[in-house]
Amino acid sequence: MTSKKTTSPMPISPLAPKKFAKLPAIAGIEVQAMASGSRYRGRDDLVLLRFSKLTQAAGVFTSSKMPSAAVDLSRAHLVGGKARALVVNAGNANAFTGKAGAKAALDTAKGAAKLLDCKPTDVFIASTGVIGEDLDPAPLLAALKASRGESDWLDMARAIMTTDTFPKVATRQVKFGKHQITLNAIAKGSGMIAPDMATLLAFVFTDAGVPAGLLQKLLSEANTKSLNCVTVDGDTSTSDTCLMFATGDKKLDGAPLRSLEDKRLAPLRGALTDLMQDLAVQVASDGEGVSKLMTIDVTGAETDAAARQIGLAIGNSPLVKTAVAGEDANWGRIVMAIGKSGEAAERDRLSIDIGGVQVARKGRAVAGYDERPVAKHMRGRHVNIRVDVGVQLEAKKKAKGQARIWASDLTHGYIDINADYRS
Amino acid sequence: MTSKKTTSPMPISPLAPKKFAKLPAIAGIEVQAMASGSRYRGRDDLVLLRFSKLTQAAGVFTSSKMPSAAVDLSRAHLVGGKARALVVNAGNANAFTGKAGAKAALDTAKGAAKLLDCKPTDVFIASTGVIGEDLDPAPLLAALKASRGESDWLDMARAIMTTDTFPKVATRQVKFGKHQITLNAIAKGSGMIAPDMATLLAFVFTDAGVPAGLLQKLLSEANTKSLNCVTVDGDTSTSDTCLMFATGDKKLDGAPLRSLEDKRLAPLRGALTDLMQDLAVQVASDGEGVSKLMTIDVTGAETDAAARQIGLAIGNSPLVKTAVAGEDANWGRIVMAIGKSGEAAERDRLSIDIGGVQVARKGRAVAGYDERPVAKHMRGRHVNIRVDVGVQLEAKKKAKGQARIWASDLTHGYIDINADYRS
């Protein structure tokens, strides 16, 4: 862990990890974090990832109808499925900046391409920070040009922080044929975090040999169960981007990989979801003003997607979030949130558990349940809510849709960050 | 205005009206407010409206999948389109109370029917308050039986308050054929307020002669432009109910009324929307913890419904709401909210005005706009946001969908009410 300070005005989240994972090097990936001086003083705010040869690339982006210029550019460059570099800047989102913004993104890609002697379309860009301010590419390009030496992955995770109070990193190593492969990932995000897209900024790197088409399927699948299951405030950024790069250093023997169901992919597939859920939990744990992390398990829904919507309705409800902040096991508000989700749910078969204690069964309170363990659970940092919405399919079969959602609570700290401090 | 005190722990909203409308009597409607002692001490918490003969009835209810027992009962009783009485209790929502709750609602209706010598299906019930607690009908029935004399309409509006800090009343008088007719309305609601349904509790009364089928169409139309355009916290109650009753004392000459487009209905139709928008503004003005009222006008959307969704995305966004509370003209957050609404919007044709000042045009900031009048506007109690989302139809025709939304801001007061005070 480096000794650099973040510029966040807020104290570090009480849910920050005690120590950060140490990310191993991946052959053929060179990491550089640097200070462009564009917006922040005394900290890195710019990252360059160089791939020594063309890597396979995959990506998922914000569903916002107001995407940033960086999202427009990276989405266009992804068509080729190949990458030589990734440039990420913090402090200015280059969003809602019109034609000037599109030009700034393109100029940055061209400058990086010149430096690396590659095509501009092989450069990916992500930008995070203030919306609606013109981005000047000159200081970014000057910093990229002057940059020397290599940085630690953790430095990179720190360099892309905005209102984050801690850097988010995760790593896994698994079997891939006869090889041991590495998965490294970093992310940033604290406010304007809501799902239904590739939430926030997150980047995943591996040395596994997976072709771009399949890499895209792997990433989309894992994303649905991880970053798309996080919510801080239900507000969706214009800049959300998750990119995955595979250098192909470690290749499988035998027939080419063609399908997600190929058994040789199973360890990577499991590890990728696990890795991205690790990031998801870290992002919710650094939600603006967070005092408690909610883990919401939903079962008995019509489909997994319906379960996800129900979980998000609970995790996004200001009344549920404030009740959790107030350590109040107010399960009536959970009922309300399920009811407003719009998804099928059977009121008179609904069950709710808090901290493992049954508080509601068959559409009403459990008479005389022991409130003490529930109250104790609510006083902790981790609040676990489990609901079964009891949907019955035809032939009296119980529906099996399920999902797990991570959400922060809603505290005075969120108001402090977003109302009392002017941006 | 009576001298009764509310039991709200919070100071009265700074946006409360300086004086309340005086509602005239309507022939054939008798109002009684009373104290059942069920939950609150020292205040009325129960209302009985008696109609001297069968009135025409219309209603819209919560879209929640977890409706209260009162909603279930009133929805069922509405099938007949006739009413002799309305009973409303505050303090217990009789929601998520299973079979016992259904029986409590039915017993209340039966008790009232016995008192009035009518059918139980001619009695409508609405309940508001805590979710998940059994409702004992005995004290309600005892109070109904003991009740004598008539109350003021304002007393009735006070008796149904929960976390409201002021009673909501409105009245209009308009031409109806050769008659002058009266429209009286009361409402309650402060938290758990979100649209896409008949929000909160609201009741409208008139002496006009309009058959139930047409009354339903009138109410649904006005509701879409009024109560369904309010949001406090995006949380949808299990108990939302809006009912309208027409005694038929003032009848039209000539052919029976058959269509909303009948010209004789025009004054009533306009006055009803106006009346219900008055209530809508009052509800947003009493949003939990409110410090400022946002009025959000959306134009250039694909349809009116799309404009409404965009306006609600802005009015529900925690980041927009906290920016308004912080008096920060952070229009980047408005862009974000439009982008996440899911409705069509053209980023590069988007315009935003705040307090009548153009801050963004054609998808970017207006260079060098005068920030002083905007800053001054943000310091006031009323914040007006206007966006044109610039959707183009085929043949380069500009889309005309529009809506107006009313929303409260998000302050420490909201957290105080919902986290710091245990319910």
Features of the shown structure:
homodimer, 423 residues, alpha+beta, L-amino peptidase D-ALA esterase/amidase, Ubiquitin-like (UB roll), 2 domains, seven-stranded mixed sheet, 11 helices, 30% helix, globular, disordered N terminus
Characterization of the model:
The structure is a homodimer of 423-residue chains. By secondary structure, chain A is α+β, with helices and mostly antiparallel strands. Chain A is built from eleven helices and 15 strands. Chain A has helices spanning 69-77, 98-116, 137-146, 153-159, 212-224, 266-285, 304-316, 318-325, 331-340, 371-378, 412-420, and strands at 29-34, 46-61, 82-92, 123-130, 168-176, 179-188, 201-208, 230-231, 241-250, 293-301, 351-354, 357-361, 364-365, 382-388, 401-408. In chain A, strands 1, 2, 3, 4, 5, 6, 7 and 9 form an eight-stranded mixed sheet that branches. Chain A has a seven-stranded mixed sheet with strand order 8-15-10-14-11-12-13. In chain A, helix 1 packs across helix 2 (98-116). Chains A and B meet through helix 2, helix 8, helix 9, strand 13 and helix 11 of A and helix 2, helix 8, helix 9, strand 13 and helix 11 of B.
Give the chain pair forming the largest contact, with residue counts: A-B, 68 and 68 residues
Instruction: Name the CATH architecture of the largest domain in chain A.
Output: 4-Layer Sandwich
End-to-end separation of chain A in angstroms reads 29 Å
Which assembly state applies to the chains in this document? homodimer
> How would you spell out the order of helices and strands of chain A?
EEHEHEHHEEEHEEHEHHHEEEHEEH
How many separate helices of chain A?
A: 11
